[in-house]
Design a protein that fits this description.
The structure holds 2 protein chains of 2 kinds. By secondary structure, chain A is an alpha+beta fold. Chain A contains 20 helices and 27 strands. Chain B has 2 domains: about 70 residues, Ubiquitin-like (UB roll) (Roll), CATH 3.10.20; about 70 residues, DNA polymerase, domain 1. The chains are: A alpha+beta, B alpha+beta.
């Protein structure tokens, strides 16, 4: 419990230097963002209530398009029983977070965790505040709180009919102790949560008003562009900056260990000067690595002896030896960049008073604080981080905080002056933390009745955890993101083994939307191969291996029913199916595709069923399903990052293609929440996409797709 | 000095004639609603109107915009919301929102030229890239605007 004093301090911190970068969200007609801020009351850390009943809900997670800025507010507002029309949101400040002993829990925004890992304490915060507000009103009236009811932020004493608004009792409520026992509503009684309320961030977004990281503007600010060593891990050997320094607007050239930056009075001038730098790089021994080198690394891993086992059930060796039919296949995926549309960026300012202030597009405000502390050598108390709106995240801006470290190194060279670093697209394309390339071999056996009896998987894949979270590697160095979908296979297979070869080259890998999703592609396409070998329909084959109450089986049955599986599709259209679990949710999908005689693929329709236990904002969940389909489609059709001379070949959207509107399939989303658990929506729907499409391609062409992207396959019917 | 008419106001800027219009808008005129995404006219996040036509400002030298009417997202509507912006809210189009200002500028120019575009015409005109996957809603919002006759055709 804190008082209005810390609220005022908070406002001061948020508004430091200039109102230009304070994120202002939508306030409904009739209310105003200006005015009564000084008398607003922080009832608890999660909300501030104004005398005119406006409720500002603090959001600890970042908003990168996924919509949890709104859904998280819905959960608080639901239990608070306030008027949703008077709700707005603001990002909780990472600095306040540290000063107040991490009062807002985790700020990490990834793994589709926003709602599922904070719903409990958010709902309790809302319910607790509601009880305190009611108690304050009851105390004023001298009546028992049990005689009071609340509707839309108005407290009514039933016997007397007296009423008080939240805004009238917030200050008194804030002085009360938080209740020890906080009952929560049954989700069946929700009025705000569970409803497709309009997103709070959209009205500003259509006006171009939100301040993304790249939009930060401060008095006297300079701009920085950067050239990083094109070979990962390499260093700067020599820089000739004479031409760059002579260009208009250039203030400074900053040479760091592994990059050179130019600071100028506009970003374009800075970047023109970067192009004029003559840099000799010390490539650090990896300047020879190309695709073949990566392939050889993965091949060596796949064939290595005595690999650690991520899962072992029964005896696959003897079971395969005794199987009536054995199938084996190898599958492969390339590296892929996140390609957030907003490039990486960080504004840093070494203030004259000894503080360091940072503005950045981050998926983890806490990680940005820590990175700033380690890069600057300053204690956390002297660092202030402002979380800006993110132009996409997809995992790029959480674990790696490379842009923050660089921003600090650059700004330190011009103390007292704020400097905004923004990467060019080619820097962003060539300096990612890529979805790992992987090579997987699967060997499975069927008995005489066509029943799956044994499945042995060997995974060779760079470890994301080794790069970003080494403390999370399991015994034997197993990275759970690399074996996902195999070590938790829902199918009832009596003999299973999963071996993992951790092979990290010099290419940095990272959490790319639904890390480990390649395994869903491998597993579910191989399942179709097995179904064919067993002479069974792909849906029937899967059903036969799933218990009747299995959640994957339920979403599978929901989706095949909705998609009309088993009934004829339109002429020339073929279907594929896949299922997956991950990020707390269960997902199944049917894809409808056609392939022209020239081999051109068109994905017409995607039907997806998702069981996330509960649904907080159905429209946002549907938007996330559409988002996963489009994001995944690019990786299925075209996207890959290739290695040549130790560096990434692709430079921009002309050679790393994003799908256009004409390629967007019709997406039908079935939300089938079964209750009793909380699952995510930011990633699950991407898992079955590649296998559903590739299984449909097989239905259309008879060709098995065992590697992506599809642009490398000749799809002309055989 | 280069003279620009941006959102109805005249500005004089002391910049290189080859500086792309995008950077003049963002860094010299304080109009950050127009975004940088690729710098090579691929993504359309930088779309503005030049005499009513959608153009990609990241590759347009500022000298080529002299004397023309430049409209950015900040100036799309003088009072309240433009019908396209209203439709974008109604259909909950944006996700991260980074590409959406350019998307809205392109859609507005399309509807002013052709108030009733069919799907093929939408495909032809709306080549802006979105990484989040808002395309289905972009299409829906444009169709709704067409059906309502919400955008006044531009006299050519």
């Amino acid at each position: 419990m804190t008082t209005a004093v810390s609220r005022r301090e908070f406002l001061k911190v948020s508004a430091a230097a200039s109102g230009a970068f304070v994120l202002e969200f939508w306030f409904p007609a009739g209310s105003s963002a200006a005015g009564s801020a000084d008398t607003a009351t922080e009832v608890n850390a999660w909300m501030v209530i104004h005398p005119d009943d406006r409720v500002v809900i603090r959001i600890a997670r970042s908003e990168m398009g996924q919509g949890s800025f709104t859904a998280l507010a819905q959960l608080v507002a639901e239990e608070l029983d306030c008027d949703w029309g008077k709700v707005s949101g603001e990002f909780a400040s990472p600095n306040e977070h540290f000063r107040r002993n991490r009062i807002w829990g985790s700020m990490l925004t990834g793994g589709s965790r926003g709602i599922r890992t904070s719903q409990d304490y958010l709902r309790k915060a809302g319910a607790s505040a509601r009880m305190m507000l009611v108690m304050a009103a009851a105390t004023r009236w001298g009546v028992p709180p049990s005689e009071c009811t609340v509707q839309a932020g108005v407290i009514t004493h039933r016997p007397s009919g007296r009423r008080l608004r939240y805004g009238e009792v917030a200050a008194a409520a804030a002085l009360l102790p938080a209740p020890a026992e906080v009952p929560l509503k049954d989700p069946r009684d929700w009025k705000i949560a569970g409803k497709p309320v309009h997103r709070l961030d959209i009205p500003d977004k259509v006006l171009g008003k939100p301040v993304f990281g790249v939009d930060v503007s401060l008095p006297g600010m300079l701009h920085a562009a950067i050239a990083q060593c094109p070979v990962f891990g390499g260093k700067v050997a020599h820089v000739d900056a004479s031409l760059a320094q002579s260009l208009r607007g250039v203030k400074q050239v900053v040479r760091a260990d592994d990059f050179v930056a130019v600071v100028a009075d506009s970003w374009w001038r800075a970047n023109e000067a970067v192009k004029a730098l003559k840099i000799r790089w010390d490539e650090g021994g990896n300047g020879h690595v190309d695709n073949a080198g990566i392939a050889a690394m993965l091949r060596e891993g796949l064939e290595a002896k005595d690999l650690p086992q991520a899962r072992k059930v029964g005896e696959v060796g003897s079971a395969l030896a005794g199987a009536a039919k054995v199938l084996q296949a190898e599958y492969h995926s390339p590296y892929i960049n996140h390609a957030t549309l907003e490039p990486q960026t960080c504004t840093a300012w070494f203030r004259p008073d000894g503080f360091l202030e940072i503005w950045t597009s981050t998926q983890d405000g806490e990680a940005s604080m820590q990175a700033a502390a380690s890069a600057s050598g300053l204690p956390l108390e002297k660092i202030e981080v402002h979380k800006m709106m993110l132009g996409g995240g997809f995992g790029r801006r959480g674990g790696p905080q490379d842009f923050v470290r660089q921003g600090i190194v650059i700004a330190r060279a011009v103390p007292g002056t704020p400097v905004k670093l923004m990467w060019s697209r080619s820097e962003d394309m060539q300096h990612g933390f890529y979805r790992p390339a992987s090579l997987v071999s699967m060997k499975a056996g069927l008995d005489a009745q066509g029943r799956l009896v044994a499945w042995h998987t060997r995974v060779a894949c760079p470890s994301i955890l080794q790069v970003l979270r080494p403390q999370l590697l399991a015994k034997g160095g197993i990275d759970f993101t690399a074996v996902r979908s195999f070590d938790d296979m829902p199918y009832e297979v009596p003999h299973q083994q999963v071996d993992y070869a951790r092979r990290n080259g010099h290419v940095p890998v990272g959490f790319w939307r639904a890390p480990g999703q390649q395994n869903a592609f491998y597993r579910e396409c191989f399942m179709d191969e097995l179904a064919e070998a067993a002479g069974q329909d792909p849906v029937v084959f899967r059903q036969s291996l799933l218990a009747p109450d299995n959640k994957e089986r339920r979403v599978l049955e929901a989706v095949v029913h909705a998609a009309g599986w088993g009934q004829p599709a339109a002429a020339g259209v073929f279907r594929g199916v896949a299922l997956a679990a991950g990020f707390g949710s269960y997902t199944a999908m049917v894809a409808e595709v056609s392939v022209s005689p020239k081999g051109e693929l068109k994905v017409h329709r995607i039907v997806v069923a998702i069981d996330s236990g509960y649904v907080v904002n159905p429209d946002t969940c549907r938007a996330q399903a559409e988002s996963n389909v489009l994001f995944g489609l690019g990786s299925v059709l075209y996207q890959e990052n290739n290695l040549k001379n130790g560096r990434i070949v692709e430079t921009n959207f002309n050679n790393f293609r994003l799908p256009q509107i004409s390629e967007m399939p019709k997406v039908e989303t079935l939300l089938v929440p079964s209750g009793g658990f909380w699952g995510g929506h930011g990633e699950p729907a991407i898992l079955p996409l590649a296998p559903a499409i590739c299984n449909a391609v097989h239905a259309a062409t008879g060709k098995r797709i065992r590697s992506l992207p599809l642009k490398h396959h000749d799809l002309r019917p055989a | 000095m280069i003279k620009l008419i941006v959102n109805g106001e005249t500005h004089s800027v002391d910049v290189e004639p080859e500086m792309p219009l995008l950077w003049v808008l963002r860094d010299h005129l304080g109009l950050p609603g127009t975004k940088y995404g690729c710098g090579i006219s691929q993504c359309g996040a930088c779309t503005v109107h030049l005499d009513g036509e959608a153009v990609r400002s990241c590759t347009l030298p500022v000298s080529a915009a002299q004397g023309k009417r430049i409209t950015t997202i900040e100036g799309l509507s003088r009072d309240g919301l433009h019908p396209v912006q209203k439709a974008w809210i109604e259909h909950e189009v944006p996700q991260c929102g980074y590409c959406q200002t350019g998307m809205i500028m392109t859609a507005t120019a399309l509807l002013e030229r052709n108030p009733h575009p069919n799907d093929d015409q939408i495909d032809q005109a709306m080549t802006n890239l979105c990484r989040c996957g808002t395309y289905a809603r972009v299409r829906k919002a444009i169709h709704a605007l067409a059906e309502a006759g919400a955008v006044t055709p531009r006299k050519s």
